[in-house]
TrEMBL record:
Ranges for domain MRM3-like substrate binding: 18-117
SUPFAM superfamilies: alpha/beta knot, L30e-like
Key words, A-Z: Methyltransferase, Transferase
PANTHER family in UniProt: RRNA METHYLTRANSFERASE 3, RRNA METHYLTRANSFERASE 3, MITOCHONDRIAL
Keyword Transmembrane helix: no
Family: Belongs to the class IV-like SAM-binding methyltransferase superfamily. RNA methyltransferase TrmH family.
GO molecular function, one term: methyltransferase activity
Protein name from the UniProt record: RNA methyltransferase
BP GO terms, sorted: methylation
All copies of domain tRNA/rRNA methyltransferase SpoU type, residue ranges: 138-276
A Pfam family per the record: MRM3-like_sub_bind
Gene3D superfamilies registered for this protein in UniProt: 3.30.1330.30, 3.40.1280.10
Amino acid sequence: MTNHTRPARELTITSASNPRLKSLLALRRRRTREETGQTLVEGYEEIGLALTSGLRPRTVYVCEDLFSPAGRAGSQDIGQQDDLLARLRDDRVEVVHLSRSAFEKVSYREGPDGLLAVVDRVGITLDDLRVEGPDHLALLSQGVEKPGNLGAMLRTADAAGVDAVVAADPVTDWGNPNVVRASKGTVFAVPAASATTAEALEWLQANDIRLVVTTPETDLLHTDVDYTGRVAIAVGSEKHGADRTLLDAATHRVRIPMSGLANSLNVAASAAIVLYEAVRQRGSR
């Protein structure tokens, strides 16, 4: 049987109106995240990946009543929350215990597993992105609005071994809790920066990175381009695609063949298709 014994010094909050919980709810707003330099990470898998990536949470809020003794949620193996909690304690992270009602108030996901962490805001500047070696592969998204799409692209970037992800003129920020959730925590594993389109293009040029932009406005298929060497693959916004500035700067404009009635693919799916063509050409990384 799992032992939920807690150190006596750890704070317990039972009231859903506690001021500390109000500060957690405020971190759902971008303005608050930017002012405080903090964001939220919820879930065993996401917090675990953040730790593996070297991130140390400021505080972790836990509700043992929501822990899964078997380490499972339905048919999914979610791991042992107690093991992760012990790991956090070993790293001297502040642990705050919440009642079930208090935790459910601050949780932003369905079916919470009893773990919610406050971490420093994620994302770096273009100047902090390291471009090393002749085979640097980057993903650039321009004007993407939906956190789920940004998160999905991060998961693909992590799986494909992408060296950097740049959000040009983003509508949301990397610290959006729904970006963190959709990325399954890979936002902490993949170097991710935000910039204007002009700044991103200057960065590409300064680092001798070729730009391949997806668009229906071309006859060149995505499989007919050489993706070896230093390359950035770019996708545009959900509604409008890549703008003229990005298209004019492209080394190649490519399209993904489509045979159905729909005239476009989901932006995250488009990014995945072209990225994995690059992976195929480059061989196993």
